[in-house]
Automatic annotation (TrEMBL):
Transmembrane regions listed in the UniProt entry: none
Annotated keywords: Repeat
Pfam families in the record: SIS
Protein name: SIS domain-containing protein
Alphabetical GO biological process terms: fructose 6-phosphate metabolic process; protein N-linked glycosylation; UDP-N-acetylglucosamine metabolic process
Domain SIS: 208-346
GO terms assigned for molecular function: carbohydrate derivative binding; glutamine-fructose-6-phosphate transaminase (isomerizing) activity
Gene source species: Thermococcus aggregans
InterPro entries per record: GlmS/AgaS_SIS, GlmS/FrlB_SIS, SIS_dom, SIS_dom_sf
């Protein structure tokens, strides 16, 4: 029996990668073959043993067919007769008819004959073999320098008799290798959002929407990046009474006023954040509805006290500064807001479909957009590296991005950035400016706020070491034409609800490269841990 690269979970939710013989796998082990360790999302493994036959399938993501049902379908195909090519064709046909963003690996054994398959609807598959060892992954960093590379919707097929890969032609060289986990995880964002898109039909989204439609008041609680992401729901759903507040402040001052008709939206990447857990427990006791948004739906403690669980689908995030999990949270809130607006009659079917299509198109374009943003962010970070800190300013839809951006600049680059709302900047903070500081403005997408920014444009770059405008419009470009020490960043404005996604990705890349130039421990900032449990 060959060895396969496996990704295994232990009870503490840590993940290890190793080459393991399937015969040595302990009973009940939950494992993933093929899917990379950043792509756990919703996953499940199924083991079927019948006499001399064994079938093991591992599925991650959101196929339209329920996971166990899809696994049984593959078993039936495996049991069918025919040539090796017929077998591969039936598998390819069955998997190609599935919709959704998912990856699957199957191992099948019939007496002495063995098969290994891999398939993904939305990711490349990297596959290689060395003697009896077969290697499969969906992330290029884990692959050898030269490897067989299959595009999405291709079937990787290995037979113990012929040792062939159906559909492969020649090995390709893998070029991009990431130095830090943070930048690697930023580049995972397109795949996170592709999975998020298929949450639109997920039962939890529909249940949460019903709660929101029938509630009087909505509280959004979280800590750190989770709270910053939660701030955006107020802008995605401005027609409703939504209050975003730190979990600890909610416990101190708002629990006593919580009503049974209220809904609490708790956001926790780990599912185990102490302050959020405290709020969820007390809210549940008080009879309020609890919707939890978490990246750890299977092992997070928050699931015990929640009425509805919505997964973020970002997978394991190794770097302490949250990147893909933050953007994944925005994606979940975006879908939740869209479905709620539809249920409330605020948008019609056509508008809903248009918004969803825009989101899908955005996820498809993102792999090409990210390198462009990174090139610009890297150049600007060089200018900022000689400065001691500054302000990051915005208003409206992108104000939460300014708050999150300031956190990222502190965490990843040790640059003291203070987030300030556009108008509040004009009421005092500008007095503290000096030549060794920067101002970063995320230009608002709301017309009134854009006009206000243009009206006071000179106020934002007087006596500054450097001035950055993210999302600079033509009007800004004209005003900045003859002004030194200004960097302008062009960002797509075509869909204002997607503009925050563009803005946060640029700020994440800027924070990363500033950290590189400042030579900080980007993935593990001093004094910080990924989760505050107690």
């Amino acid at each position: 029996m060959p060895k396969f690269d496996l990704i295994t979970w232990n009870k503490n939710n840590y993940i290890s990668i190793g080459s393991t013989n399937l015969k040595e796998m302990p009973p009940g082990t939950n494992f993933l073959l093929n899917t990379n360790k950043y792509e756990t999302g919703i996953n499940s493994s199924f083991i079927i043993r019948k006499e001399e036959s064994t079938a093991i399938t591992a599925i991650e993501g959101l196929p339209k067919t329920p996971l166990k049902e899809l696994s049984e379908k593959l078993w039936q195909i495996f049991q069918s007769t025919g040539s090796e090519n017929d077998f591969a064709k039936r598998l390819k046909d069955a998997l190609s008819r599935e919709t959704g963003a998912f990856s699957i690996v199957g191992y099948f054994k019939e007496r002495e004959e063995e098969f290994l398959i891999a398939f993904s609807t939305y990711r490349d598959i990297f596959i290689d073999q060395n003697g009896e060892s077969v290697f499969l992954t969906t992330i290029n960093e884990l692959a050898p320098e030269e490897v067989y590379r299959l595009p999405p919707n291709s079937l990787a097929f290995w037979s113990s008799q012929k040792r062939t890969f159906v559909g492969t032609k020649k090995k390709t060289r893998i070029s991009r290798q990431f130095k830090h986990r943070m930048i690697r995880e930023i580049y995972e964002t397109p795949y996170v959002l592709k999975r998020t898109y298929f949450l639109k039909d997920y039962p939890s989204i529909q249940l949460a929407t019903e709660m929101i439609r029938n509630t009087e008041r909505i509280w959004v609680v979280g800590s750190g990046s989770s709270l910053n992401g939660g701030l955006e729901l107020q802008y995605f759903l401005p027609e409703l009474d939504i209050i975003a507040i730190p979990a600890f402040e909610f416990k101190l001052h708002k629990l006593s006023s919580l009503d049974k008709d209220d809904t609490v939206v708790a956001i926790t990447q780990s599912g185990n954040t102490w302050g959020v857990l405290e709020v969820v427990k007390e809210s549940k006791k008080g009879g309020a509805n609890v919707i939890s948004i978490t990246n750890n739906p299977s092992l997070g403690k928050v699931t015990k006290y929640s009425d509805v669980i919505i997964p973020i689908l970002a997978g394991y995030e190794a770097a302490i500064p949250a990147t893909k999990s933050f953007t994944g949270t925005l994606g979940v809130l975006y879908l939740l807001a869209l479905t709620s607006r539809k249920k409330l009659g605020l948008i019609n079917d056509n508008e809903m479909e248009k918004r969803l299509q825009n989101f899908s198109d955005f996820t498809n374009k993102l792999p090409d957009i990210l390198p462009q943003y990174e090139t610009s962010a890297k150049t600007i970070a060089k200018y900022l590296s000689n400065l001691r800190g500054g302000y990051i300013i915005s208003a409206g839809m992108t104000y939460p991005i300014a708050v999150e951006g300031a956190l990222k600049l502190k965490e990843a680059a040790y640059s003291h950035a203070e987030p300030i709302e556009l108008e509040e900047y004009l009421h005092g903070p500008s007095a503290a400016l000096s030549e060794d500081m920067y101002n970063i403005v995320i230009q608002p997408c709301e017309e009134f706020a854009k006009k206000r920014f243009l009206q006071k444009f000179e106020k934002f770059h007087e006596n500054l070491g450097h001035f950055v405008v993210i999302g600079a419009t033509q009007e800004v470009q004209k005003k900045a034409k003859n002004t030194e020490n200004i960097s302008l960043v062009n960002i797509d404005y075509s869909d204002t609800m997607l503009y925050p996604f563009h803005a946060v990705l640029f700020v994440q890349l800027l924070s990363y490269w500033l950290g590189v130039y400042n030579n900080t421990p980007i993935d593990f900032p001093r004094g910080l841990v990924k989760m505050v449990e107690k």
